[in-house]
Amino acid sequence: MTEQPNRVEATDAARALIAEIRRDHPDILFHQSGGCCNGSSPMCYPASDFHIGSGDVKLGEVDGVPVYISGPQFEVWKYTQLILDVVPGRGGMFSLDNGREKRFLARARVFTAEERVLLEGAA
């Protein structure tokens, strides 16, 4: 393996919900705060409604949609791949998945030793 691994991926269910949301809101982004209330729920916002902070880290993109994480949360998860998934339920109060009877959920996979070397080399 010589290619740097993606820091963010998505399941087919998450990609389908992203496409559904984009029909109503074409320009969106995700933010994973790690906060106490919805820490495992990546929040989906209209891109124009969310201010990316100077400490936020862009993990990558899923189907052209940027995914950010708070700086402190990135330090905890920097050797973990974030995987966007979907489960039944209600989204966060201000998240665009709210009211769709399904919500985004962050899952994770720890990078392998080889992947960690590639990530550290790219930093």
Walk me through what this model shows.
This protein is 24% helix and 33% strand. With 123 residues, it is an alpha/beta fold. The chain has a single domain, classed as Hypothetical Protein Aq_1857, Chain: A. The strands form 2 sheets. The protein has a 4-stranded mixed beta sheet with strand order 3-2-5-4. Strands 1-6-7 form a 3-stranded mixed beta sheet. A hairpin with a 2-residue loop joins strand 4 and strand 5. The chain starts with 7 loop residues before the first strand and ends with a helix. The mean pLDDT is 90.
Secondary structure: elements and pairs:
Layout: E1 8-10, H1 12-24, E2 28-32, E3 43-46, E4 57-62, E5 65-69, H2 71-77, E6 80-88, E7 102-110, H3 113-122
Parallel strand pairs: 1-6, 2-5
Antiparallel strand pairs: 2-3, 4-5, 6-7
Which properties best describe this structure?
alpha/beta; Hypothetical Protein Aq_1857, Chain: A; four-stranded mixed beta sheet; 24% helix; globular
How would you sum up this structure in a few lines?
This protein is α/β, with parallel strands linked by helices and 123 residues long.
